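User: Hey, my collaborator sent me this sequence without any context and asked if I could get a structure. I don't really work with proteins. Can you help?
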Amino acid sequence: MSREGKLVKNTFIISIGTFLPKLAAFITLPILTGCLAKEEYGVYELIMDMVSLLLPTATLQIQTAAFRFLIDRRDKTDDVKKIVTNIFVFIVPIALLALTILFFAMFFFLPNEQTGIKLLICLYFFADILVNATRQIARGLNKNLFYSVSAVVSAVCKMLFALLFVQYLQIGLFGAVLSLALASLVSLIVLLITSKIHRYIDLRKVSWGQIKELIGYSWPMVPNSMSMWVMRLSDRFVITGFMGLAPVAVYSAANKLPSMLTLAQTTFTMAWQENASIVSKDKDAGAYYSSMFRTMFDLMAGFMGVLIAATPILFKLLIRGDYSESYPHIPILFLAMFFFSMCAFLGGIYVAYMDTKSVGVTTVVAAICNLVINLAAIKFIGIYAASISTLVSYILLYVYRMFHVRKLVEIRYQPLHILIVIALLVAECTLCFFQNTYLNLLNAVIGVTAFVILNQPLIKTCWKKAAKMLKRA
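Assistant: No problem. I've predicted the 3D structure and written it out in structure-token form, which is a compact way to encode the shape of the chain:
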């Protein structure tokens, strides 16, 4: 199978494990909000936020090392056993220590909750740490289907257990947390049974040198993960501190449409990291990355052009209530998402060449820029400081990575093409900002035309394959 074919196949398989869980979470949301008291739902959301912030820190992101190291050695059984064994030898005791500290810390910020719920939260965290590590191992061993199956099982179990414990048995927050813990445990068991990863655990392979090597690769991903978390939430904190809670609702509503794209972007990035890592040792790696950069750039620009043009329709369909102030921010945030997607693409090349320090450093700098610009501008331009600081920080991150990644591999860009396409997207954002019917129609023509012109090779390929399938039918 060709490189592009493998990328498409992996993207499709991984999309199953990312889209269906999101759908299940969407279905589960009314159950939780309808059956839990506001205070209980607030605690539930706090738990989910803690997962995204604390777990990468507690594990030093060593699961990312599992994925990258196994790609190069997946055909060598002894090496696989050594990597898998040392991942678990490190992660289990570290997780237990971190969760012991968390258990006692929860008495300070969850003083009114029962001890049983705190224990359940720790159980959920522990199971989630193990299942995430095992999923990355599965990806490293080219078992992407098992990765997706595990994610789907987890999502479906969360939904079913929420129906049972929260809606039917009505045991409130305890039932909600129990649903999370049991879903992660079931997902872990299913993954271990289907992938048989537990067979690679051999305590005779324990090596502190191997653990040190794995951590040396993974620890820079911790500040990267935390910086991305800061970039997502710092805007809301700054707005709250300077302007109050009502403007936060306006900004959150503006983020709804652009944030939907993170699902597709995350799916592609996961598949791309594997493809980029496998190709990194090939003689024509530079030419391949250059070709993929152009393809990805044009594809994302085409989609963004269409989405910016469709903003007036999408806003009316998906944003309910008096959120007209949110509208002007959406094109800006769409443009920010475009640059973020390209940053993630270039980040996959850093992962391919095991240069995780550059990933961490560049993301931290971008997070600092985002916060500084936000704080400096919010008194003068209000909520626009948040959306513009997000856009500027991602542009800076994109430009820096474009040049810095060439220290690893020679990627050829087409500067004139890049500038023309970006200018076109900025023009669309400007037309969208005026909220004029005739300008919106012009935007629609520009967006669709740009998508077709930029993605002609892809459209032709898809058309030929569809025609062949119709003939066979």
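In plain terms: Residues 330 and 372 are 22 Å apart (CA to CA). You can pass these tokens on to your collaborator as they are.
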